[in-house]
Please model this.
Amino acid sequence: MKVVKFGGSSLATGEQVAKVVSIINADAERRVIVTSAPGKRTPTDVKVTDLLIQYAQQTMAHQETTVITTQILARYQAISNHFDLNTEVMTTLTNRLHDLATTTFTDNAHLLATFKAQGELLNAILLAAILTQQGIPAKFVDPRTVGFLVGGAPNDASILTATYANLASWQLPTDTRVVFPGFFGYSQAGDICTFARGGSDITGAILSRGLRADLYENFTDVDAIFAVDNRIVAHPAMITKMSYREMRELSYAGFSVFQDEAIIPAIQGQIPVNVKNTNNPTAPGTLIVPEQFLFNPANPITGIACSDRFSALYLHRYLLNKEVGFTLKLLEIFQKYNLSYEHMPSGIDDLTIIFDQSKLDTTTIHSLCRDIRTTLHPDYLEWIDDYAIIMVVGEGIAHTIDTMGKIIDSLTQNNIAIHMINQGASRISIMIGTQRKDAPAAVRHIYDTFFVKSEV
Model:
């Protein structure tokens, strides 16, 4: 049995949905289908989820919402028209969407979560109707009916362990495809709550684990996961197979095909994941598996990712390594500002703390630095906004001795300054800090060293 998730670009138009129908029909093992909300039809288009957020904001402000609801419904109507569906389905979608504006919510956070979730929910209802009309028996399943329970904040939910027991006891129909909306679940109080990141990916992974699927297929709009961002390197090598932990490291550092958090349920259930292309479904895609036992000794690197979403705090103090409790005091300051850090490479007198800059603002940065100076009395303290991280990842790194040297040579020979270099505890990744302007060139030079030369 396979769980299959389709991304927003795969469900954006009637033409795309027709491809999805063919993919489902081509394999009887694709029994559980997870939907995203309709995505962009063109580069300048607006995703349905963004339209729903506008609808929520206008409702909270007690503004007229006719224009925005008309825009949202037009997206589903166009897909419905492509298949000549009867009017009953669109009536259902219209009523559900309009009822939101007159529903009473606990607070605005719950209102926003419920509005956002409608993109996936309405698409699941619509796809189930299309499949049935096309001769593929299917039914829409609301997450509430199978006990798909979440906890946490309304717009930052996390799955509850009870969900897995609920899914294990659910009798999956043998002669009907199940269409399940991604991105959200229900709190124990019965409220809709959405995942913060990679919503439909997370839902697919949770269902794969809970239903003990043999494979989780994640359909998107690329043939495979590439070894490097194709906006940095033209026509990069495709990754045919990679390990869970390689995917986690690369997603964290910038690979957007599969969110790093979304794969965790699949890891916990040891479910292989196959990333495939809706527009080229016969391509093998990228298989993500528990372990990558085999690797090419001539090229230990699987992929290279970079992100400029970081800032860093550099702290220098003599005999830093001798002071008991120094790091504890630092962490207590972070806790005061409700901050988590990403990395903390250190030396005997030096410490660099790397943050996700999206979680910070100017006021917090000034207050944080002031408290560190007052409490820890560093000899030197500097906040660095100009910071990018490059992650070089591969199971083969742990089995080779010259990978680090080749990386350093490729950068220094091209006059790229390295601000920080650190090999992770996992032994399969090497993290490099550079200035933002140098990051794309650094990625290209590392790629050339490990991929281009190995292909010659």
Observations:
- DSSP finds 13 helices and 19 strands in the chain.
- The longest helix spans residues 108-133.
